[in-house]
Design a protein that fits this description.
- The protein is of the alpha+beta class.
- It has one domain: Trna Endonuclease, Chain: A, domain 1, CATH 3.40.1350.
- Helices cover 19% and strands 28% of the residues.
- Strands 1-2-3-5-6-9 form a 6-stranded mixed sheet, with helices on one face. A 3-stranded antiparallel sheet has the order 4-8-7.
- The protein starts with a helix and ends in a 10-residue tail after the last strand.
Length: 169
């Protein structure tokens, strides 16, 4: 897939992720956190993409001072915990997105398709992650990408409805 087609697919995926980010932001607010959602700016072309690097999906704080970056994704699959996670590994994020982040995320939250359950991976577990290369079906059958993954047993599994996803401390 050419760079223009990849970029168009990337823009589509960004716009489709807004529901999950808004859901998690509201969920944090209901849990007593202050939340900031940075303005989403999308590069008009593939060539200009680095000027529009993502500043994070949202930031949360309990005290108004210690803001933590949170990245949010929504899976196309349903799951409740490690017992029914559909893969051998838990896909945390694209390797380049973590490696290039100027402000490293505090955690990654992956919602299930119904947005009722989530897997939370705190980045203080980074030493337990490893890299896999796989086809990224979002961008076509020939597009490969490196991802950070971890063992599903090391993921914090939470309700996305009634509980808070980021642990204190």
């Amino acid at each position: 897939m050419g760079n223009t087609m990849t970029h168009m697919k990337f823009v589509e995926n960004c716009l489709n992720s807004n529901d999950a980010v808004c859901y998690v932001a509201d969920w944090f607010r209901r849990s007593g956190y202050q939340v900031q959602v940075p303005e989403q700016k999308i590069a008009p072309t593939y060539q200009s993409r680095m000027k529009y690097a993502d500043k994070g999906d949202l930031y949360v704080t309990e005290d108004g001072h210690n803001w933590r970056r949170v990245e949010v994704k929504r899976s196309s699959r349903d799951f409740t915990s490690a017992r029914d996670w559909p893969y051998d590994n838990f896909f945390v994020c694209a390797k380049h997105s973590y490696d290039n982040a100027k402000i490293k995320p505090y955690c990654y939250i992956i919602l299930n398709k119904k947005m009722t359950r989530m897997g939370v991976v705190k980045t203080d577990t980074f030493e337990d992650w490893w890299v896999v290369e796989k086809h990224d079906k979002r961008y076509g059958k020939d597009y490969k990408q490196e991802f950070y993954v971890c063992d599903p047993k090391n993921v914090i599994w939470r309700s996305a409805v009634n509980e808070i996803g980021v642990q204190h401390g």
